[in-house]
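Notes to self after the call with IL:
- keep both proteins in one doc
- input above output, always
- annotate only the second one for now

Protein 1:
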Amino acid sequence: MNWTLAEPFLSCPVLGQALARQTNDLELQARFKPVAEQMAANEEKIIQELNDAQGQPVDIGGYYHPNQEMAASAMRPSGTLNAIVDTL
């Protein structure tokens, strides 16, 4: 596992599970339960997608004023994780 991109992801399922298990805010629990389940079910795939993005140059359309779409694509290399996060 390449820790550069994958390490921050590893805390996401833990946080999602904690939010899904808490009982003080049932709306919050309902919102994060499917997210936590999807992250746990897709953990290996997400880590592989993050690792596959490592070590290759990426064109973001400029240094001081990058293209926002190109930069966003480069900064979100896991389609699986993006789909899960975008449900929030």
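Protein 2 (the one to annotate):
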Amino acid sequence: MANRVVFIGPCYPFKGGVSKYAARLAVRLAATIPLEMHTYARLYPRWLFPGRSEPDPILEYNDVPFAIRDLSFLRPWTFYRLGCRIRRDAGSIDGVVLTWWTSVWGLHSWLLMMGLRKSVPLVLWCHNVFDHGRRGLLTIPVKQLLQGADSFVTHSGTERKRLESLAGGRPVGMSPLPPLHLGELKPLGEPGVMAPSRDRLREAPFRLLFFGFVRPYKGVEDLLEAMRQVSDKVHVHLTICGECWGKMHQKLQACLREYNIEDIVDIRDAYIPDDQLGAVFEACDAVVLPYREATGSGVVALAHFFSRPAIVTDVGSLSEAVVPGRNGWVCRAGNPDHLSLTILQAINQPISAASVAAAQPDAVDAWDKLTACVLQVMVSKTDKANAVRQEIKRGKHHQRH
């Protein structure tokens, strides 16, 4: 590619995995090709965002200094304006990569496409094709966006199949989510450190960690029901560590009282900045992702980065990242009974940190593969022009008949 690529997505100081992955991918792409990144001066208004909107406090190594902060949810015309500007400069731009993770941005993305007017190839980098727990009218802008894109990249086999069924032969690339941190954080201890022994478990509880934003689709209530079932069989403790969205904190507290497990579950209702991750993961023996639905999650890669095994459900790409018995365990989604049996298996058949480390993919190689995947699916300008001409011909044919 001789010309530059335009990358659009959230980045620091906004919180969450999508922002962190977008920032890291932008840096990787910029090291490979000339890159122009556009990001948000402001994300969601408070009435659309059930979490707390303060920025991530740890920015020392995370900021993307070349990002242009010219897009805003409350000013949707900024997307149309950007699309028009890209169209005017189309001779020096090989393509646009648009980060897609929620239909809340459907109108804005449509305006971007209206400004582009098919002048350059458009790649959709899809974290979620459709929103968690949202259906009906909110799928309309998603389908419009899918019709306008030239190619796609996603992170799970499930989402790849979904996109292929909607893409009509357009390229769909798939690359698993890489470990998020490349040298900014240090793995804990040595890979040879063993998982907790049965002797140690007689004295201290087996420590489980749920990490990340606490949202309804993540199945934390199922985890609490499973904790109720195992608490009278083994010595176990759970820490829920992450910002609760909406009324989730109140719901969890009600579950703790109903199940009488308040003494074995701690809720740390707060966003955890990167400089505290080491202490959080060091304090657990296994990480639990009891999701009822999912496309993927960076939490699995983060757990493995810290040589901690993960208990995951069989949804999305979660189970694709786990080799049972080597770096974690897989259970059925939405099934507290099966989750409780899996927790007991994790306690009775512990996995060593060495085993988790051995199964961990090379971080640099994983990021190289994702970067290459994005560039490989980008349709050439010649193919794009031919596709537009064919579309125009089909339109004229339908008009005559």
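Annotation: The radius of gyration is 22 Å. Residues 4-178+365-400 form a domain with the Rossmann fold fold (CATH 3.40.50.11930).
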